[in-house]
Amino acid sequence: MARLARRPDLLLLLLWAALVTAGLVALYSTTHGPAAEFLPSGVRDNFARQFLWAGLSLAVLGTVLLLPIRFFQSMAYVIYGATVALLVLTLAVGREINGAKAWLYIGSIGLQTSELAKVGAVLAVARLLSTRQARINTVRYALGAVALILVPTVIIILQNDMGTALVFLALVPVMLYWSGLPVATVLLVISPALAGYLTLVYWPAAVAFAVLFTTGIYWHTREAYMGALAALFTGGTAAVASFALAYVLKPYQLARVLSFTNPEAEAYRKTYGFHLVQSKAAIGSGGLFGKGFMQGTQTQGAYVPEQSTDFIFSVIGEEFGFVGAALVLLLFALLLVRLVRMGTECRHPFGLMVAAGVAGVILVHVFINIGMATGLLPVIGIPLPFLSYGGSSLLANTLMLAVVLNLHMRRDEFSIFV
Amino acid sequence: MIDYRVRARIFVGVIVLLLGLLVLRLAQMQLWQTELYAGESRSNAVREQRVMPARGAIYDRNGVLLVDNAPAYSLLITPRYFDPKNIPLLARLLEVPDSVVANRLAQARAWSAYRPSRVFTDLPFETFSRVVENLYRLPGVQYEIDQRRRYHTPARAAHALGYVREITRAELEQLRDDGYAMGDRIGKAGLEKFYEKALRGVPGRAFKLVNIHGQEIKPYRDGAEDVPPISGYDLHLGIDYRVQALAESLFVGKRGAVVALDPNNGEIIALVSMPDFDLEVLSGPIDPETWRYLITSPEKPLFNRATMSGVPPGSTWKPFMALVGLQEGVITARSTIYCPGGYLLGTRLFRCHGGAHGSLDVREAIEKSCNTFFFTVMMRLDVNTLHRWAQRFGFGRPIPMDIAEQNPGLIPDSAYYNRRYPNGWTAGYTINLGIGQGDMTVTPMQLARYVAAIANGGTLYPPHLVRELVHPETGEVLRPQLPPPEHIPIKPEYFQIVREGMRRVMEKGTARWVQIPGIPAGGKTGTAQAPGGRKDHSLFIMFAPYDAPKIAIAVLVENAGFGATVAAPIASLMAELYLTGEVATTPQRRYMLEHVLRQRSQPLDEPTVTQAASR
Predict the structure, then answer these.
(1) Which value does ipTM take for this structure?
(2) Does residue B519 belong to any structural domain of this protein?
(3) Contact B26 A326 (CB under 8 A)
């Protein structure tokens, strides 16, 4: 059994620790800076709370490492079912914070169940796609995976947490691509998202995209039903999105989406554009080396709303400058690349799929979060993994790393062909 | 089997691409556009404030604190950041109706939505601290602790000290370059105005980090760019607050002025002008009723009578006439003049009072206040000689001193009479100048300076309120810029003769009832005709002690009758308090005190003699 005694991947653990530490440093600055006395006392305890959550997450990570390798694959659907059940429970009895009914309270500890649902979704999709027999290239698997993801997504949309829902949707192309499905199938499945985004920015572009995409798919596959599906997915999405923009979205959601296109406009500046203007001012004014720990004027003046949660990157950008911000990005890059490598080292489809899913989830979070903090993307309320204040997010992300660590550590136990 | 290594490479490529994109974006913002964002963040979070220095305090001649600063608590609202839902909360904390807060908020918004406006000023400390404790619930509300003047003694000395109020728009236009800003307080009268520059100090600057709610959270860059304010100088006055307060209380129901000087250096010991006003009231928000009274009352409370009201000196002029007569050689120490009860000039008799004095020398003439004697002296002089000597005694010209509001008074010369009486004039027009009546006016300040010169043997010191300016932090002492004392070219023995005459006034003459127990003094009463048929002005000049004078006083009580009746006891009581530290409780002094308190100036709204006669 000596071959089972591989050590957990040290680099990944170190990267985890570095990122969590960076988050705690930034959080400390927002809660214990010179302006701390002006904060409500509850906010000041956030640092200690997050510290406890980090400890708890580490303990969970240790526990997960002890589990047998088969556990995850065999329990994937069970875990998925449990997390979906939690989502439903949250929808029923959860507590609403900032307009999103996403928190389930056990005593005084709040749990954002949508974070945990990510773990379930990654495991379930990995399980589904890894059982696919080679050479059976059907759209069925792809649609199955999409369905597995859509179930929690819809519940989360019902919870009114659009940001988290978006992350789930972004999981689709990553996992499909990784699953080895033909490119046309993958593109087909993700085309609605692209069509939707283009509708948002400039609807004629969406129409043009729908036409080109349909033509392209048909030309590539020479299958009439693929062309029909392509036309339906892209054109249909554009139509539905246009309708939603005009009639369904609530004003604040619309404002949030539109503020992205012009954050300087007065009307948006005072609502959601305000986040952006302040966050950009914080990051931009950081310069090369930053203003120094607990010296950031934007941070200490609490100008960036949600600066300890969704906008924690503005603290790093302001107080530690380009050097600090780029270092955090480097840490993320190393973490992601390492995750992908660990996946391929597993050489088992389930391990590969889980690692890719985890890397995909984290990549989407990092890109959207920092993209919004720097004004590249609209303001979408999702946390920066490992750094943002919030126990559920830290716990869920650590849990996902722990699964990959476990699978990688025990990779020799896998038989390569299931 | 799919080649995962290829897909892994593509995945890694995507990761590097996306994160690389973010790094490029960061580089763009933080390396190339950092100036832009730095400016944005600075204008956002850094607020420049002026730090007002402590205005100098004012002390009396014994170091008793007269004026210093009390904190004035104000609340400022930036309407843009103030949530109207908080109006009831703020109103409850301030204990005012909601509508008051709503109104002030509307006014503030009309002025500027983004700039903080001072909406509640001069709040009581308890109210203020209650609001400050709840500031975290009131975004958009800030406070400011400002200074207002606080007065410590019962002496008001309103005209001497002057007051401090918010700068007006017109003043601001003029003084913008001197670092004044909207809402600053500035000296408007008296010493506060005269020494504005020294009292004010130099404002500093502070840069504060402000959080999103407008609360100051800490100094910007730990105060590295701050400029500390420089405090103003403290003023140390010659005023003795006890003497000042006594004089003010003796003036109840009267109009007029008192000036008391130290004859050895010109320091002002007391300066009273009545009616006066409450400096405390003038340094805060004034209600329109009070303001209308101050501005339009015929009693002119803002008018500094001590330096601005010109009245004929009456018989207090006679010591001057004696000195000029002696120096010009028209009389001698022993020469006598016969008083038959008046002076006959042509066919007109200029009457003396109290019948015929008979033959008297200059000392007796002063003691008895004989008009005939001084008519004669006047007739032996000419009006231009008199004018020249009066100027040497400081009459008829402004006094170089630290009170800007002055009336130079009127001492006529031949040019004046030529102008005034183009058809010709005679001695009959000028003979009254010999007894301090006619076309002449002097101010109480000029009278006090003159009696001080008699007391010290001919030195005309510049009167001044401020002895020295002391910087509270460095201890640096500045002396006020005073013109050199002027010497009156009259022989000392002539001054001695006049002083003896004035002593006899106190011991045997018109003012004997106001002798200070145990302290010999010199004095002279005066009763000046008032215009408009009103009751005469009551005047008195005095110095004490006789041998080594320490105080010289001039008192004017308008429309109150004989000099001996009203003005003299006021001077006597002031001198006694100044020299002995108390007012003796003998029955005679008590009677005098009660007598003075009962005296009244004839009210200005009472019909005058001529008005009554014309009815």
Answers:
(1) 0.87
(2) yes
(3) yes
